[in-house]
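Quick question, first post here. What does this chain look like in 3D?
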Amino acid sequence: MSALRVAFVFASRGIGGAERSMLRLMARAHPSPFACRVIVPAPPNAAFAEAVSALGVPYHPLSPWNLVGLHRLLREHRPDVLYLFGRF
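> Answer (accepted):
Ran it through. Tokens below.
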């Protein structure tokens, strides 16, 4: 059985409670049973990018409101589960 593909999309500018919770989940679940991926269509978030990368999880920054880029990444990854955090 292959890992469940999970995409986390954050519109945050820092590391808050949701980010910390999901980082803990990714640390325990990636790469199996979850194949995680983080997409951030928001202003640069260096601290979060570093924390995600340290877990070996792919991190995809996008410019705010880049719906074409977001659609492209979701189409390529084809997540089984999509979590959205922040205000979109």
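Residues 17-29 form the longest helix (13 residues).
The beta strands are 4-10, 34-41, 59-62, 81-85.
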